[in-house]
Write a structure and sequence with these properties.
The chain is of the alpha+beta class and about 190 residues long. About 50% of the residues lie in helices and about 10% in strands. The radius of gyration is 22 Å and the shape is elongated.
């Protein structure tokens, strides 16, 4: 892996420069990416180096968009013979919540902070906590399907921490659950209703 300076003359004869990150991925394929600033190239070099060593790197040129991955996931769901209502729900989540916001991004560009921002945007746009949770779960399923197809090296949705308490728990049920945990009682023997 290397970061090197590339210089050339522009159309008017003025000197131009760019910074190139040159690396070989975990599959042995060579890739380059060009940056205007050295600090951006160095940052990319560090990120890619760690990802290649971990075996989780997918080059942008080898990746598909979230929209294409969602389409492939829906085809897989249909081929698996899922019920019509389930398919309608999945199509709605992909078409209304995921693709309009993340559809143009390549899977290799998705990061945990980006997914967290996606959730925040859904909340800001007035989506219910249940809708946000289901959209995130569907995005995770899309990435898992892409991972199985070899289109993504990692599923960033699964790397996010889970919520401490499920959204369905009310404040009363949550406090009851906390007291149950302190007493060591089993959840399946206790009703969590208000």
């Amino acid at each position: 892996m290397s970061v090197r300076k590339r210089t050339w003359k522009g159309p008017a004869g003025e000197p131009r420069e760019a910074w190139v990150v040159d690396y070989v991925d975990q599959e042995g394929d060579r890739h380059i990416k060009t940056f205007a600033k050295k600090r951006d190239a160095d940052a990319h070099h560090a990120i890619v180096g760690a990802a290649v060593r971990a075996g989780t790197h997918t080059a942008d040129s080898m990746s598909v968009t979230v929209a294409k991955a969602a389409e492939l996931w829906l085809e897989s769901c249909a081929a698996a013979g899922l019920e019509r209502t389930t398919m309608v729900a999945y199509q709605q989540r992909a078409g209304v919540h995921i693709v309009p916001i993340l559809g143009a991004l390549k899977l290799s560009q998705l990061t945990a902070p980006l997914v967290r921002g996606f959730e925040d945007r859904l909340r800001r746009d007035g989506r219910s906590p249940a809708t946000v949770r289901l959209a995130r779960r569907s995005l995770g399923a899309i990435l898992a399907d892409a991972q199985e197809r070899g289109l993504a090296a990692q599923n960033v949705v699964y790397s996010l921490a889970r919520s401490a308490a499920p959204d369905a728990l009310t404040a009363t049920a949550s406090s009851r659950w906390a007291s149950i945990c302190r007493r060591g009682e089993r959840r399946d023997r206790i009703s969590l209703g208000g």
